[in-house]
Automatic annotation (TrEMBL), chain A:
Membrane topology of the entry: Multi-pass membrane protein
SUPFAM superfamilies, per the entry: MetI-like
Keywords for the protein's UniProt record, in alphabetical order: Cell membrane, Membrane, Transmembrane, Transmembrane helix, Transport
Residue ranges occupied by any ABC transmembrane type-1 domain in the UniProt entry: 85-298
Chief location bin: membrane
Annotated source species: Ruminiclostridium cellobioparum subsp. termitidis CT1112
Xref: Pfam families: BPD_transp_1
Listed InterPro entries: ABC_transporter_permease, MetI-like, MetI-like_sf
Stated name of the protein: Sugar ABC transporter permease
Biological-process GO terms, alphabetical: transmembrane transport
Domain of life of the native organism: Bacteria
Automatic annotation (TrEMBL), chain B:
Signal peptide: 1-29
Biased composition range(s): Low complexity: 28-54
Region described as Disordered: 28-57
InterPro entries reported for this sequence: Bact_solute-bd_prot1, SBP
A Pfam family recorded for this sequence: SBP_bac_1
Name the UniProt record assigns to this protein: ABC-type sugar transport system, periplasmic component
Keyword set, alphabetical order: Signal, Sugar transport, Transport
Amino acid sequence: MNNLSISTMTTRKKYGIKSKKVKENLFAYFMLAPDVIGIALFIFVPILIALYVSFHDWNVLEPMKYIGLENYKNLLSDGQWWHSVWTTLLYTLMFVPMVFCISLLLAVFVNSIPGSAQEFFRTLYFIPYSISTVVASLIWRFMMDPQRGFINDILRAIGLPAQDFLGNPKQALFCIAFISAWMLIGYYSIIFLAALKDIPVSYYEAAYLDGANFFHVFKSITFPLLKEVNTFVLIVTTIASFQVFDQIKILTNGGPADATNVSVYYIYKNAFEYMKVGYSSALAFVLFAIIFVFSLIQLRITKGNSDE
Amino acid sequence: MKRNMQRLASLAVAAGLVLGMAACGSGQSASNDSSKATNTSNTTNTAVNSTESSGGKSKISFWTFHTNAEKEFMASLPEKYKAVNPNVEVTYENFPESDYMGTKLTTAFAANAGPDVFVMSPGDFLKYANSGVAKDLTSYFTDEMKQDFLPSAIDAVTVDGKIVAIPFEIELLGLYYNKDMFKAAGLEAPKTWDELINATKKLKKGDIASLIVEPSKGYYQNFTWYPFLWQTGANVIDSGTKTATFEGEGVEKSLKLWGDLIKAGAPSKLSIPLTNEIALLGSGKAAMQVCGTWAVASLENNYQDTNIGLVPLPVPEGGKAATAAGGWKLMVNGKSENSDAAAKFAMWAFAEDTSIPLEWCTKVKFAYSPRKSVIEAGKDIYTKGLREVFTNQIYDSAVGEPRYPSEIVNAVGDALQNVMFNNGDPKSEAKKANDKIADFLKTYNGAM
C-alpha cells in the first residue's frame, strides 16, 4: 500500500512536469509563430521563387522560358556585373571602418561625460538614425550640390575650390559611404555605449592608480573587453554595406560614369530597367553567395580570436 | 557552435533580404506555367485582369504620371467620356514619374494587373510592343485618321505593320538662354558648338550654372544628346540593315562635345534630378539649358520676370541642324478583357475629335500635335512667344526619337558618361559601344 502510493505520487509528479514542459514549448511556438510565418512568407518564399526565376528568361511581359544555367553562365562574362561587385567591395572598405571607428570613439566620448549631459549627447548622435534614408539622402543631395550646395558655399567662403562631390566619379562613392555612415553612427555608438557600461569601473580605477593614461586604458581594457560587440558591429555593417541601395538610387542612380553602380543597384536596373528579371535573380543569388562567404570568413576569424 | 549556427542563420536571413528585392517583381511567377513558354502570341494568352465587367458596364483603368495642369487634364478625361459612352467607367490613376517608369508598370504587368490604357515613352515602347502587351490598334484607325496623322508619327508607333499605340504629342528640343546674362557678358546666343563651349566657359559664375545639359545616364540624357550626334551626319545604328554604325569622326566629335561642355563648367550633378524641369533657368540660376517645348508653358506661367530667349540647338562646323522629336504615346493593354472598350476610349481621346488634343497641346502644355487637323485648328497659338522659334526655326529639323532597346541605350550612355566624367577617349569609347551594340544586334530578333 505504502509502496503503491509512493509510486503513484512519483508518476503524477513526472507527468505533471512533462505536461508543463509541453505546454511551455507550445506557448513558445505560439509566440514565435507570427515571426516564423512572416519570415517564411516574405523572405524564404520569395527567395525560392527568385531561385526558380533565375533559371528562366523572363521579361515580365511574356511567359517565362526555361534556360537552365544560361543566366549564371552569362554573368561570369558580364564586365559590368564584376565592376559592380568591385565597387561594392570598395564601398565596404570605406563604410565599415568609418562606422566602426567613429561610433566607437563617440561612445567612449559620451561615456566619459558625467551626468545628464550624457543623455543629451546620446540623443543628439542618435537623431540621424531616426530620419528615413530617403529624407536624409535628399538633404545631403542639396547640401552637396556642386553649384548651389551649402558645403560648397562654405568652401568658397574660406577660399577653397568648390567640389563636384556626387558629380565626380572619384568622390561620389566616398560621399555616399560618408552619408550612410552619418546616418548609422548614432545607432552603433549606442550599442558600443551599452557594452562600455558593462565594463566594471574598478578595472579603470586600478589602471589609473597604476599610472596608466587614457590610451593605455583604451588599448588594454576597453577595446579587448568590447570584443563581442566589435564582432557584431563588424559583421552587421559589412552585410549592410553589401546591401546599399536607397542612398544610391536617390543620390546618383549609379553614376557618374558607373562610379556608384553597386551590385544591388545593378540587380535593380536589370530587373526594372532592362526587364531581365531572370538574369537579375541569378545576380541576386550570386551576391547572396558572396555575402555568405564573406560572413563565414569573418565568423571564422573572429571565432579564432575569441578562442585565444 | 550552437551560437555560431544561430549567427549563421541570422546572416542567411539578412543576406536573403537582398534576394527579396529581385523576387518582389515576381509575385505570380510560380503560377506561370512554364509549358506556356513557347507561346508568345498575345491572342491565345488568357491573362486575368484586375478590371471586370459588372452589370453590363465595362470598367477601364487609365494610368499616367502627370503633375499639375497635365494631371488635371488627364483626370478630366474619364468624366468627359461618361457623356459619350455611359456604359464604360474609366478610373484614372496617377503616379510619380520615377515610380511609373521605374517599377509601377513593370510589376503591375508581371502580376497580370496592368492598366487598360497607359502612356508609354519611346524609350520603353519596344519592350511593350515586342512582347505583345500592346493591343493592335490598326483596325481602329480609319483611312481618314491615317491621312490626318503625320506619316512619321504613325511610323514611330508601327511594329511589323501594326499600329500599336496612339501618338498624342510631339516635343522638340531647343536651347533656352537668359538674354540679360548674355547681354551683360557681351555675348550672342550660340549658333555653333564652339560658341556654345565659349559661352559655357564665360557665363559660369559662383553659384550660377552656365549651361544645363542632363548629367545623369539614362534615356533622357541620350534623347537630349542624339541631336548633336545627328548634326554630324552620324547615327547609332542603321535601322534599315540593323547594323551598328556608332563609329567615325561624327560620333567622336559629338561625344567629345559633351565632355568639353562639362570641362567648360556645365554642372556634373543637379539637385533636381531631371533637367527637363526649367526651374533653374527660370529663376535666374542658370544661363542656358537644353530643354524641350514643354518648358514654354512653365516659363510663361511661373517665370515671367526672367528674360528668356530660345534658339535652335547649336551646330558643328559644316554640320546641319537637327533636333529630336520625342513625345509619349497612348497604349492599350491587349491582354485585358476590356481591351476593345479601352481602345475605343483611347481613340476617342486623341484620334477622333480635335478639341481634346488641341487643349492638351496648346492650353495644358505646349507640344506639337501629330495630327494635321489639330495643328491647323491651333495655328494661331503655334506662333505665340517662344513657340514661334520652335515653329519657324526648329520644327523642320526634327528627327523622331529612336525607340532603341535598353541594351543599346545603355551602351551609348556608357560611352557618353565615360567621355564626360572619366576623361574617356571618344574614339575608344565609341568603339567599345559599337562592339556592344553589334554584339547585341546579332541575337536581337525584335522590331527596331
